[in-house]
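Quick log. Single chain, no ligands specified.
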Amino acid sequence: MSGKDLSGKIAMITGAGSGIGAGIARVLFERGATLALCDLFGDSAEKTAESLSNDILHDSVDVTKPEDLENFRDKILDKHGTIDILVANAGVIGAKGFSERKNYSKDDWDNTFDVNVIGMVNSADAIVDHMKMKEYGKIINIASHGGRKPRGLGDMHRGNVQTPYLVSKAAAIQYTHLLAIELGSFNINVNAVCPGVIWTPIWEAIAINHIEQNPNLKNKTPKEVFDELAVKARTPLGRGQTAEDIGKTVAFFASEDSSEITGQALNVNGGASLN
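-> predicted structure:
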């Protein structure tokens, strides 16, 4: 799949200010989609938008607040008349201070579920009536391969600080399955992409946490920890993924090539997990 196969499609992307969200935006733009980008940090969404075009709608949106999403939806409809694609990408790894903790706090549970689960639900709720009305839509949720399997004993020296994040991503996958069943009769496809090992601000926080909790890693940089523990030790292909790799998978789910696929969660992780 390549070229301008998303021409004429309007795509709303949450968490588009950096990392995976920015990579998704770049790929969908290259494939011809018209973008509407939002992020908790409005200046980050603006930066992504202006790196692609000076005519991309962008705004500051807190996905934990339904009214923010509804207001952004209305701006998209006012400018473009429709929304064809929703990419629910906004996500967090934990609450403030995550990298320094060995074990989770209540704030970690609250923060990850508010953004990674409720924020995803809020994003779909904001646009689903519009998609139902026109009997067409593509919803792509960004989950994680970490939501599909336990971390394993080899990672337990770090304690349980990452547990809330992993459970939130498992919930995102289950939500994808259930939403696909609910919306199938309206010709709306709902799928999830499960990224693996990608050097993003979230993985940098995880790498810092490894260093904080493992004395053997004290002399390594976060990027070195990522390369050794995430890529070389766990990935059969021997390479990390990029934000654009996730974007290409999102572009497939957003295209008509995936019209008979719904309710699926696809790992994009170089074989780091095989289920």
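The chain has eight helices and seven strands.
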